[in-house]
Design brief:
Number of domains of chain A: 2
Structural class of chain A: alpha/beta
Radius of gyration of chain A: 20 Å
Number of helices of chain A: 9
Largest sheet of chain A: 7 strands, mixed
CATH topology of the largest domain in chain A: Quinone Oxidoreductase, Chain A, domain 1
CATH architecture of the largest domain in chain A: Alpha-Beta Complex
Distance between the termini of chain A: 18 Å
Helix content of chain A: 10-25%
Number of strands of chain A: 15
CATH superfamily of the largest domain in chain A: Medium-chain alcohol dehydrogenases, catalytic domain
Order of helices and strands of chain A: EEEHEEEEHEHEHEHEHEHEHEHE
Oligomer: homodimer
Shape of chain A: globular
Chain lengths: 336, 336
């Protein structure tokens, strides 16, 4: 049995996640039974949703229990196998958690095709739940149409960069809100979005007014708080507000900040809808086919922010994520 | 020319409406031109929307300008006519404003059928914009189904009493939030709703939990603020939150209270949608036919709260409305 270090939830965080909310334990990797295989985890997806999974509040999936391995989307390599479907050397992705190895019988595990010139990280990003979230959120919930103005908050993040690119593919204008000059420059210069507004600067309301002269048809909100509230002011009649997350709020102690401008929904006959990409699981193949074809055609790129390190770095990776220090998909790459 | 007293907007209110926000002026009723007629106004509808019309903020219709007659839905009697479609003695309804007489060419004016045993006030209530708001809000925006649990805030108000009755007609459970024991008793005993929860009592959250064991499929919110926020906690998966108004917030100085629990929309894959009954104008005839047939069958009743008085009473009528002192449709009946 090979060693296996795991990061387990030690305490439910109050406010920001601290290192002491986790416990590092040294385990052994069990021998695989018949039909099982062992995965050496190479990439761990760092997601805003992790903060919610650590909380006991009612949510769309059960919380991680104290004492359990922290939940995470991961990519890894099969290093031992008694399952004829998975051979040693195969790259796979699944929800293996924050640990170095995992044993699986293949349930909810999928092979990844590195040979096609895609990075392992892209299977956590644009070809993973990130890309699927952007795809179904913008197309099904947001019902984007050519000519629409799409406003995206957290636009330089993993989902945001995917949403903006898909909006452009669909013939919409992409107006972004992001934090900092360099991110805004990247969104316009490198990804070709129509405008990027720095929420850290002055007068976000004035900038929004200037860059959404025809108002906003789809507002894809990853951030919540004051940014959600400002975006609501600019809704076009019949607008769709897509609630994907609230990265500004997850580490809040006490109540979240609610959008005081929510009556814009009434004035604009608009809707605000929450969604979970998991609900579209039966349509993942269709979405992945389309996302892959856009990638192959060079219309879409995977914006990855891969950090080499060790599972112990999870708390600081989460801190980096919630401080908005990542650009694109934040992935922890476990080194040898 | 007969005298005509008018209540004109004198100032845009800050917070609660005051008597000094209006000016009473003595005018003469102009002689009707060819094709015009004169209406003696008998009933003035007192609506929460009036507070919004007095404000200069961007909304779904232009504000009432300072110096203009205050906008109001009204019923009146034709007292002089040079229009062959409208005879002296006809009862009509239209947006004639807060004044004693109006001259009209018949545009957007409709006859009311008092002979059928309906009160003039019912044309401002269940057969007016109130009933239409309840009808389209619950059926089109809320998409209520038999077996659904419908939560209604401001349930003892004009729209609320109509929504609850239509919900029952459609085979749904009606769970109401209202202020005070007597209103709650009326909603259950007289209107047959399934439960009525007094928000003025303790532990609204606990009462909601008790009375919505299968959660809430449609939340029809007239109130906003803390009540909207508590209702969000109880959303069923795929729930529809219908934003009809925010009577608790209109008189607020400064920002409204936003719903801090709005991420329930994400957890429950729910939507929150605003609407304006005016948008359904081409379907008013269909709705009025159905509402009338329910009335005739005794399945639906018009809950009227008619107060005799004078146009000068508008400010106190609005105060009564925003304090939740009315039960059903508040109408000012102008007496001789």
């Amino acid at each position: 049995m090979s060693p296996n270090r795991q990061l387990r939830l030690a305490a439910r965080p109050e406010g920001e996640v601290k290192a002491s909310d986790f416990e590092l334990v040294d385990m052994k990797t069990p021998e695989p039974d018949e039909n099982e295989f062992v995965v050496e985890i190479t990439h761990i997806s760092i997601d805003p949703a992790m903060r919610g999974w650590m909380s006991a509040a009612r949510s769309y999936i059960p919380p991680v229990e104290v004492g359990e391995v922290m939940r995470a989307f991961t990519v890894g390599r099969v290093v031992e196998s008694r399952n004829p479907e998975f051979a040693v050397g195969d790259f796979v992705h699944g929800i293996f958690g924050v640990q170095e190895h995992a044993v699986s019988d293949g349930t909810d595990v999928y092979k990844v095709d590195i040979a096609a010139g895609r990075s392992p990280a892209s299977y956590l990003g644009i070809l993973g739940l990130t890309g699927l979230t952007a795809y179904f959120g913008l197309l099904d919930v947001g019902r984007v149409q050519a000519g629409d103005t799409v406003l995206i908050s957290g636009a330089a993040g993993a989902v945001g960069t995917a949403v903006g690119q898909i909006a452009k593919i669909k013939g919409a204008r992409a107006v972004d809100i992001a934090g900092g000059h360099e991110k805004c420059r990247m969104l316009v210069d490198d990804l070709g979005f129509d405008a990027a507004l720095d929420y850290r600067g002055d007068d976000l309301r004035g900038k929004l007014r200037e860059h959404t002269p025809d108002y906003v048809d789809v507002f894809f909100d990853n951030v919540g708080g004051g940014i959600l509230n400002e975006g609501l002011v600019r809704l076009a009649r019949g607008a769709r507000v897509v609630i994907c997350g609230a990265v500004s709020q997850y580490s809040q102690v006490g109540d979240f900040v609610g959008p005081s401008n929510y009556l814009a929904l009434l004035i604009s006959r608009a809707s605000m809808t929450g969604f979970i990409a998991f609900d579209y699981a039966d349509r993942y193949p269709e979405a992945l086919t389309e996302l892959s074809s856009w990638l192959a055609a060079g219309e879409l790129c995977s914006v990855d922010d891969t950090v080499p390190g060790d599972i112990e770095m999870l708390p600081e990776m989460l801190a980096r994520l919630f401080a908005g220090q990542n650009t694109g998909k934040l992935v922890l790459e476990l080194g040898p």
